[in-house]
Amino acid sequence: MYRFMLEQGHQTYAELHAWSIHRREDFWQALVRFCDVRFSKQADSVLTQHGDMTTAQWYSGGELNFAEHLLRHSGSRAALIFCGEEGARREMSFDALRVEVARAAAGLRAAGVTRGDRVGAFLPNCPEAVVAMLAAASMGAIWSSCSPDFGINGVVDRFGQIEPKVLICADGYFYGGKRFDSLEAVRGVLKSIPSIRQTVIVPFSAELPALTGLDNALSWSQFTSKDEPLQFESLPFDHPLYIMYSSGTTGVPKCIVHGAGGTLLQHLKEQALHCDVNEQDRLFYFTTCGWMMWNWLASGLASGATLMLFDGTPFHEDGRILWRMAEEEKITIFGTSAKYIAAQEKAGIRPGDEFDLSSIRTVLSTGSPLAPASFDYVYRDIADNVQLSSIAGGTDIISCFAAGNPLLPVRRGELQCLALGMAVAIFDDDGNAVVNQNGELVCTQAFPSMPVCFWNDPDNARYHAAYFERFPGVWAHGDYAELTDEHAMIIHGRSDAVLNPGGVRIGTSEIYRQVEKLDEVVESIAIGQSWGDDVRVVLFVILRDGLELTDELSARIRSVIRSNTTPRHVPAKIIKVPEIPRTISGKIVELAVRSVVHGEPVKNTDALANPDALQYFRDIPELERD
Q1: Which CATH number belongs to the domain containing residue 530 in this structure?
Q2: Residue 374 has pLDDT above 90, yes or no
Q3: CA–CA distances in Å: residue 528 to residues 523, 555, 593
Q4: Under 8 Å CB-to-CB from 499, ≥6 apart: which residues?
Q5: In terms of Cα–Cα distance, which of 590, 593, 512, 588 is closest to 557?
Q6: What is the pLDDT of residue 621?
Q7: How far apart (Å, rounded) are the C-alpha atoms in residues 293 and 310?
């Protein structure tokens, strides 16, 4: 970051960011040069825009190949290191990765896959997933993946819309010390999606999985049995690379199409500059193939990093398995979720005392806002000399609006900076930009990783409705946030889950940060319940095993909220529940709980990892008493 900043003639990050916004074309071209992005055909222009940001076109006429950039490093150094919760470990060098990608591409060609065809993956976070993705990208096929804990309906809701020609899946997976079979779900998927011509089975949980009842199925070894030269198709900058999905908790998931060039530029910017990723790094992010952080992690190959892949539960081996892996594998960048960090503290785990974590220089956190107390935990109990980067963006942009920065201080509870090239602002209800005030996170200028389109949305009506209806011509991201005088950001939760008692808007994370300071509370979820002519705040809590929600504990919960926020934040009702519903990627779902409490249907429970948890919120007696 420092070298890039000086090369552009700037002395501070604030100057650099301002330049990246006001001189967008110069900035992105400078990034292309700095990160050695290679176009097989040069673009006619960096940016053409006729009207507002929805008309923007990046690098029109330019051609490149995404996979070629991720495979530009060579040698015997490890490109991929896989660790499974059951003890498996595999390593693949950069040279071996190229060979495996070439074989997988030959397998796709033999299956009739050509440019623009979709390849679906129903896989654990294993090396074969990275290999198959790169093979698809090398030839211009479009990659889309789900993790194996998705049910049949969850997979069909996604892949059924995009009609893949090939489905790559595993025979099973491990989680929490148990083996789970995937082939029964695969059979159900094949019955529901007639477009699938070829099924490929990766032997993940058994050496020789049974392929009975699977028409046109090949084992991974059969699929990759042909040695052919690796070829890279020259493709338009905005050629579809990935199809990703919205959470699907309010209906069938939206199919978000991301382009190759925009994804490459954004990930290089975030990794090479904001995270300082280089060839000496071992880059880890705890993720599944169903979360955009898997796609982000894969891009680390372009900077020459070794990717650390883990599959299983992060709470295996008494919750210490990831720290053990960090020590043994000398991980340098450790990425996880805010909920994982909070859960580690609640469990009383002090990784810095138990493991040698001296290799770690950066801790990344996303998925939900990282509470100030979690900043304290990281520096007290993990390592006192790391860069802690709470980052925020999403599947919609396959990147970040706010990111880390090796040049800036870390302030507890804050995201360090706005990402380069991202014209982020906070709007009040009238569309005015505000500072030190809560509001809607927006982006006022086009950026390269805006979705190419939504699948099956020919007039872009659903795409525009998703982001541009609230403030015409301005991207409204759906986060409720605040910008500080130092250009840092504080995220207060999803704007569609904002509470509104007495007309005062409250972000749910403002409440969670206070409640989860109490040792008795493991986790919480807050909703606004319609009550008379107003809305009242209802807080549901999970308590430590064996504890009851006494009047004294309820009073302490209310007291800590009132003392650290405002009287408006204090819940009218506090109710103990045994479980909180969450998406498969681990995010709690306030909207689904709110719908159940109000007797409204939840449209797509298949998007939830634990849909049965919603039953606890139906007909709760305490909510029916005045």
Answers
A1: 3.30.300.30
A2: yes
A3: 18, 20, 10
A4: 505, 506, 507, 508, 511, 526, 527, 528, 535, 537
A5: 512
A6: 82
A7: 13
